Amino acid sequence: MNSCKIHENASKCSVNTMECFMVLSTQAQKISIATLCGLFGTLCIFENSLVLYLIFSSPRTRRKPSYLFISSLALADILASIIFVCSFVNFHVFNETNFSKEMFLLQLGGVNTSFSASLSSLLLTALDRYISISRPSKYKLLMTRKRAWIALGVLWVTCATIASLPLLGWNCCTLDSTCSELFPFVDDNYLSSWICFIMVLLGCIIYAYAHVLWRAHQHVAYMEKHQAQAGKQNTRMRMDVMLAKTLVMVLTVLVLCWSPVLVLMIYSIFARLSNHLRKVFAFCSTLCLLNSMVNPIIYALRSKELYSSLRMVLSRFRRQLKASEESPEAESTRKSSVIETVCEDMRVT
Length: 349
Description:
cell projection; Cnbnoid_rcpt; cell membrane; globular; receptor; 11 helices; mainly alpha; 0% strand; transmembrane helix
């Protein structure tokens, strides 16, 4: 593995160069990665599919712009889990190299598009909450369904365009430039630009939620001074505590899942990475998948509307299950009663 010279122009664009990026050297490491990807990916697909079903099965929720953003988040996380798990396990666990440079960059573009769209959907969700608390009287005028769909369209087109740039020519093979030490065929300058894009998204999300928390705290302070009814005041304070817990959870999960990957990406631009750090990066990449798995729990299932919809679905499922279990017994009881009636009639005759 150490003999691979990633930066040599003569070999950096050959398919065999991809073997230099297959850093998992032991069977235990491959099993660990496969287990993490399989577990996180399966849960991510199930949770986000459930969120989409709950949103679009209710006419009330699917009309609201905030739930459109959450739907976009769920869709992006489903795509991220499918594309990431398939390509990541195929590359690092099964060491598959029977595909061209274009096919690899297409897979990488799919992963980048889905993860970028996931973060961008988080940003739209944060901005939606920012507007709802900073301008509550004008929220319905500012955040309409039409504007929400336009924002989502711009989001997905932008993410897909940025992610497809390496496939369209911004790669180290076409430009004969310095290749990344973390991704085959990827230009270092493109990686720097993508990192800046992700950092801007994360910064805007953090700023929006920090402002939401600050405005909520201001509102509670105002209510403490001017609210005459203590019951309403305590209710508002409890809501502020719940909002603070949710926002702290959001920011903590976001930073913990994305900061290790981004730090290693930034470090790879300025210094050579050892094989140990590449292995660390491979394992840290699964944290982005973990973030996609946790998103529906934080953003969707904590919603009272979606939670009530989930309870209705579960209760309906239990009733159907109970009915299916009781139907054979009812049928056998009906048959036995018919037989007894026939026997009695025969005895009478």
